[in-house]
Amino acid sequence: MLRRRLNRLFGRDERKVDSRTIYVGHRPCPTTEALIPPKFCDNRIVSSKYTVWNFLPKNLFEQFRRIANFYFLIIFLVQVIVDTPTSPVTSGLPLFFVITVTAIKQGYEDWLRHKADNEVNKYLVTVLEDGRRARKESEKIKVGDVVEVVEDETFPCDLILLQSSREDETCFVTTASLDGESNHKTHYTVPDTEKNLESLSATIECEQPQPDLYKFVGRMHIYRNDQEPAVRSLGPENLLLKGATLKNTQKIYGVAVYSGMETKMALNYQGKSQKRSAVEKSINAFLLVYLCILVSKALVCTTLKYVWQSRPGQDEPWYNQKTQKEKDTNLYLKMFTDFLSFMVLFNFIIPVSMYVTVEMQKFLGSFFISWDKDFFDPEIQEGALVNTSDLNEELGQVEYVFTDKTGTLTQNNMEFIECCIDGFQYKYADSGTELDGFCVTDGPVSMLQQKAGREKEELFLRALCLCHTVQVKEATGQGDGVGDGVENQVDGVMGLDGEMIHPADLRGFIASSPDEVALVKGAMKYGFKFLGMESKNMRVMNRNNDVETYELLHVLNFDPVRRRMSVIVRTKSGDTMLFCKGADSSIFPRVRQEEVDRIRMHVERNATEGYRTLCVAYKLLSSEEYDQADTGLREAKLALQDREEKLMAVYNQVETGMSLIGATAVEDRLQEEAAETMEALQGAGMKVWVLTGDKMETAKSTCYACRLFQRSTELLELTVRTLVDPERKREERLHELLLDYHKRAVQDAPPIKAGVTRSWSSANQDYGFIIDGATLSLVLNSSPDSNSSCYKSLFLQICQNCTTVLCCRMAPLQKAQIVKMVKNSKGSPITLSIGDGANDVSMILEAHVGIGIKGREGRQAVRNSDYAIPKLKHLKKLLLGHGHLYYVRIAHLVQYFFYKNLCFILPQFLYQFFCGYSQQPLYDAAYLTMYNICFTSMPILANSLLEQHICMEVLMDNAALYRDVAKNAMLRWGPFLYWTLLGVYQGLLFFFGVRFLFSNPALQDNGQVFGNWSYGTIVFTVLVFTVTLKLAMDTRHWTWINHFVIWGSLAFYMFFSFFWGGIIWPFLRQQRLYFVFANMLSSVSAWLIIILLILLSLLPEILLLVLRKPRGPHSRQKKPVVQSGEGETQSPRSSARPLLMRTFSDESNTIL
Amino acid sequence: MAPSYNAKEEDGHQPGATGHGGAGTMTNKKPDNTAFKQQRLPAWQPILTAGTVLPAFFVIGLIFIPIGFILIVYGLTLLIDYTGVDMSSPCYNCSQSYSWNNTQSCTCSVHFSLDQPFESNVFMYYGLSNFYQNHRRYVKSRDDSQLNGDKTSLQYHICTLNRCSKECEPYRSSDKPIAPCGAIANSLFNDTLELYYIDPNGSRTAIPLVKKGIAWWTDKHVKFRNPSGNNNLTVVFQGTSKPVNWRKPVFELDPLDSDNNGFINEDFIVWMRTAALPTFRKLYCIIQKKPNNMTPTLPRGEYILEVTYNYPVRSFDGRKRMILSTISWMGGKNPFLGIAYITVGSVCFCLGLVLLSIHYRYGKRNNSAEISS
């Protein structure tokens, strides 16, 4: 017992420690004296929230944590406890309905999760136990078990790959279900493990579970008989993640390191922060107002009640005596319960159903995005994806668009354009031809010979062929080894040599970045073909069709901080060489200066033409140098802590003193309709900020191509280059520049007030602002003494007055920083981030709305986005079309809901003045309950799903219409006041109209008299008809559904009233409405008053519509004409086409 | 309550489902090209313009104004307050000397004259003011199942077991269950009104007052039922006691008509329909048109209203009235409705004129604007 507790204590201690130790196959190891099996969690995946037992309490608890539900629960409880005017059913039934529906939905979802969990947990896997293969349920796998996985199976837990059936000790996996990347990734076995896994005796030390899919550090100690334990480093390339699928490999063995809820997959699917829309904030503000109205109504009534009662004879007339209990109650307690009763009586002013309707509207409405066939992209066979339905209306409110450049504005479809070797420019013969037109003859050879030395050329091309992480994709046939595949391909290439190579053969490259493929393909144009890897040997076919092999010693991976990557290879002749390629800024300081000057010109020219440039350098390593680097790298790789930093240090140390061979230029094409989309966004009053990691020149040219910058735009540049001033410190210069720009952009342009998009117009000078990462960090994190907040606000003000801001050389985190800065600026504008790559995830998560593009750089962006679209051009419809409509719909929905409940409850409030403040409800309980659930909810729901006050095409054609709803225009206090006043007007009208009618309650032609329930029914009938007809008047787009629902719910009201009043209901204590409705309809006076009141309450609305109309109906057709007449959007529109054609046909000529 | 659909989450929870890829595979299908899904349902897009609304305004004006005039002109009403607040009023003594246990009923006669003859059926109402029949405590103080003939609510031992409505408190039971229970029933209006025509020669003729047809037909025949089982109501209501303020038990309410006793007494039913406002009137009886006679139902002349003054209203500052009214096809005379119709009708008509001018002007301007652009 004690021992166990101790163990547990140790276990806990161990958990606190940064690493865990795993005994492979649970075999004790020689060095450890006693095997204390550490406690790890089992391999059961529990994604479900509930069990059968805790479902009810837990689910209820979760639901009542929502403030609205809690409020209704309180109201319900008050009704149960206190003697209130309405029965608990009136609020209990809707609440029960809502809670039940939600519980059923969540229960069903959870049941699905249970099913999925069971499928995973009960899945049979093969585990090696003492040399025997045993079939086990997946959930029974323990950390340390050796697991066998065969082809096309998913890994049951996170495994360290020990053995693969492939000869080269690798296996292929696809992580499609983890991050959506469907390419095959190579994973490696731990080097030098014994073939016989039964006798393998090893421990694995690795870090504690953490969610980053691409990070893993560990160390494996292999114990051999009487030998020092061998140590092997483990990295992400050794780790097979649960959820990934084994491909192209017959079977593998691996040891479980993380199991169950500690797997990276499980850790990754733990909630994402919820984004809340701005509309919801408005709703909450309105709710607060209504809550105040509610409380003040209750207070007024309570006060007046006691004032009224103090008059003699009123409190307790002889005909209406109190019960003994009532008499005995304490006065203050009575006051309090009276107050609560009034609250309950008026609580319908804040209806449960509004939440339900809003949620339903959002949920159902979001389907229209995924259904939209305009978003369907035939290339990837996918449409738009909606990850959250909470933000639909936010799409109509965007003020700032932050866009990534690569893959978003541009296609990320790289094409090798030219290169520069040793200062000489090599441009492929006819780069204007088709993308795949590799009309490779022996042309380039002759061309190359005329310029740089052949040796340099070949070195350069070899560098391109070697310095990458590209894999050659195997033939999809049955071939099980790399060798075969490569052989086939070699054959194929050989056979086709000198002829036109079929494009199909060229698709065989897989790489994490398309640049690399472009470069490898580029090298191929010039005769050097990368054939693939063969157990650590890279095979390259040179111009003479000889296959050269290089032993790959190390890959110094690319990372965005270093912005370069290197490989260390050993040639056949035994030379060790380092090839490095990277951004000019990261290469130039590491090579000899005289080489730089020759190439810099080319690089800069290429960059201004909008190409992505990379510089290539190499270095011959002496054996000592190599040994030093080798040990350094190995040590760093084995480090358990700070591995990244240590590796970085070694990398930086190795990649010095290189010599520059040349540079490459790769072109990235603009996305389809990128310029038009950007123009539409700007026309809609949005400010577009381009955040890119790319070079300034490249980014700038892209901006020009997208018409974000125009010829007339005055560029304000704040980059490292402009900050260079020999006389002063950088900070002073920065200060000066900021002030100067501020003066130009903010002070000298008085009509443009920061944040007011409406006044943004073409009459004033356009400003474009350019800033780079280094300067940005200077602005944001400048030293404390030079008051940084001042810089920040200056910077922000300048940016807000510029039409376009370009931020280049951004690290992913900086992107998020910028988004955050704008998001939190004055007026808290709505921001939208759009990107396609992993580096955009941070800004996608940070912005109010995150949009992912289903691009080529994997699926991370899509996974983390709120909406995902296949192409940039779809953004236009998403925002201008869907967003606008959603916003108008939900704004109308919210306003209408408050309005209809105000004029529902106001008569009930007024009635208190005529019934001695006794909390007598005006309407029958059934009406109180059904009003929001049945009689008036469906029309508004249908309206808020289908309404198109302006049709989609017009919205898309007139970007300026977007500005009409900017800044939450329809949910500001103005419109709210209008709707509230309308509600008050109608409420007063309903009540007093009927009240004056009832000055003679003999309304029937046989002289019979109506009572209080008839009174309420008449008011209610007028109410239902009025609010429904008001909605009908607001509806601009009458589909058959609208007709059906609007007339249907009125008919339902009639039918229900007849039915409800037509039967003596045995379960009702009082038959209040028995034949009330039918008698009402038999009274001509009632008809007359109903018609009169409906007409009168709609009259102002009709008048408003009619008086507004003279410009209304025509504005639809006219708007474009008027707009272009003003010259506001005309110039960009007219110039868009030619420029676009230019960018597509002849990109290289994009001039600054 | 929070159906925030999260496709991502769901995908993530099916990790082992073989062949199920990431989020992408779900939408792999091309969206259906249906009008609904593409938000292209054929739609009618009405636009209200001055042109379309104008005729409606004129039509409304033309219809409403005559209706209003009819409502105003038609119908006669006479209202007599017999509370007896003033010393001079004939019922002053009765109103002063009131007490519930007074077995001696107090009567008073009120003289009035009709300037106009009342034609066809004349309806006689009693009116009360400042009487809160719509007070919540009062409204709910009834037991509809008892009134519907549910026997169990008449039996004491069951009633004490909380089977019958608690709402009737404090008028639920004395020593035996009260039938009918509740405050409404307890405060049944019990003044007796009689009308006499004084011939020019000085003789009084009683005017026949008909008590049939004053309550809703459905109330009389469905909603209110005497407990079944025995035709003799005395037996049925054995074991119950009369409401405290009543002089007679429920089965003796109408000594003249045996079918008008018990819960289906029409006066009682009328009273049980609680009024909407503190000032109200209730139908007392109908003075029927004389058959085959050209003389009006109530000719011009002098009348006496004989009141058996039982109902106290002074304690709460109330008033009692007797109202004679003729009823047209649209119910009793209601000056408000007439005025409202005339007002709205003329407003609509004026608006129509205003809109006409606007429409005329704008129409021109629009045309010119279109030409210029």
TrEMBL record, chain A:
It is a multi-pass membrane protein. SUPFAM superfamilies: Calcium ATPase, transduction domain A, Calcium ATPase, transmembrane domain M, HAD-like, Metal cation-transporting ATPase, ATP-binding domain N. PROSITE patterns: ATPASE_E1_E2. Residues 38-91 form the P-type ATPase N-terminal domain. The chain crosses the membrane at residues 64-82, 285-308, 339-358, 976-998, 1013-1032, 1044-1065. It comes from the Eukaryota. Belongs to the cation transport ATPase (P-type) (TC 3.A.3) family. Type IV subfamily. This is Phospholipid-transporting ATPase.
From TrEMBL, chain B:
Pfam families: CDC50. It is a multi-pass membrane protein. The keyword Transmembrane helix applies. One of its GO terms (biological process) is phospholipid translocation. The chain crosses the membrane at residues 47-80, 336-358. Keywords: Cell membrane, Cytoplasmic vesicle, Disulfide bond, Glycoprotein, Golgi apparatus, Lipid transport, Membrane, Transmembrane, Transmembrane helix, Transport. It comes from the Eukaryota. Residues 1-32 are annotated as: Disordered. One of its GO terms (cellular component) is transport vesicle membrane. It is found in: Apical cell membrane; Cytoplasmic vesicle, Secretory vesicle membrane; Golgi apparatus; Membrane. Belongs to the CDC50/LEM3 family. This is Cell cycle control protein. It comes from Hucho hucho.
